[in-house]
Each structure stands twice: as structure tokens, then as C-alpha cells.
UniProtKB/TrEMBL annotation:
Source species, domain of life: Eukaryota
Record field: compositional bias (Basic and acidic residues): 38-48, 78-87
Protein name according to UniProt: Uncharacterized protein
Region named Disordered: 26-87
Amino acid sequence: MEQRINIKLCEKIGKSASETWLMVNTSSVSERHRRFKGGREDVQDDPRSGQPKKRRTDANVDTVRTKGESTVLTESADSEKKTRNLA
């Protein structure tokens, strides 16, 4: 989120994409450096709120394929998506 805000600010003040890239990457390095200097050891991202990302596995792909054979996704005029079983 912070990077998006920085990118938006750079665009608003007239920075080019190249200048923005340099500034954002510099600020990212500075932020991470500050965290490590403050005692952080973990290099992984912190947990985030919201729904976790799904992982693509062979089992998940097979499940979707199986359901896809018997289900149709329809979209009404008001863009509400609905599923309907063919059986």
C-alpha cells in the first residue's frame, strides 16, 4: 500500500516512471534496512488481514475441472454472477 501511495505522489509531482522506480526502490530499501537495524530477523512478509491467497495444487485443479463439467456460470444484466447445475 505504501508503495502505491509513493507512486501516486511521484506521478502527481511530475516524476517520470524511471525516476519513480528509483525513488520507490530506494524508499523500500531504506524501510527494510531500518527494520533490520531495529532488530527484525525475519525476511518474510508480515501476516496480512483478509482472505489468504489460494494455492494452486493438482487436487484444486482437478476439483475445479470436475465442477466445471457440471456447472455453468451465467452473468445477468446487472453483472451479478450466478452458477447453475446442468444435471
